[in-house]
Design goal:
Length: 162
């Protein structure tokens, strides 16, 4: 990615979960972020949240993209079985979506993101929100704050290379 007059690419950062946080660095250099819910409806089948996620990714790519790279929070430990299943399903859906389009993707460990944003690898949710606010963002919750931190980490460290 070249900055300052060169080609700018669309970069997507995700905090995967039923309430997924997202942040996009657009072609114009602006960062947009938010959360989107993939909570299943009362009469939905088990796969509907993943179909909705696929459709959301495709629409985001159409409106903001093309997406050149995706970074996501790599969670190794979950509070419960349901959260682990949702995360695994969303990650499988994300990686398949990216593979089909030739979009590179990479997970970033939770501790790396928290350390980058707050200086502490085990920072609580509120500290992540506060860190995003200190950088000029207004996250609605910790999911959006995490996505913002992932995106800033990817941009500022060149994905851990700088």
């Amino acid at each position: 990615m070249q900055e300052g007059g060169g080609l700018r690419q669309c970069i997507l950062a995700l905090d995967l979960g039923t309430s997924t946080g997202w942040a996009v660095h657009g072609h114009d250099g602006l960062i947009t972020s938010g959360t989107v819910s993939f909570r299943p409806g009362r009469f939905d089948g088990g796969g509907m949240r993943f179909l909705r996620f696929t459709n959301w990714m495709t629409e985001l790519d159409r409106l903001s993209g093309p997406i050149a790279a995706i970074w996501f929070e790599e969670v190794r430990r979950h509070a419960g079985t349901d959260a682990a299943h949702v995360y695994g399903g969303l990650m499988a859906t994300l990686t398949a979506w990216a593979e089909m389009r030739g979009v590179p993707y990479e997970g970033v460990p939770v501790g790396t993101i928290k350390r980058f944003a707050t200086g502490k690898g085990n920072a609580p949710k509120q500290a992540m929100i506060d860190a995003a606010r200190a950088r000029g963002f207004s996250p609605a919750d910790d999911n959006e704050a995490d996505a913002i931190a992932i995106l800033l980490w990817a941009l500022e460290t060149r994905g851990g290379v700088a």
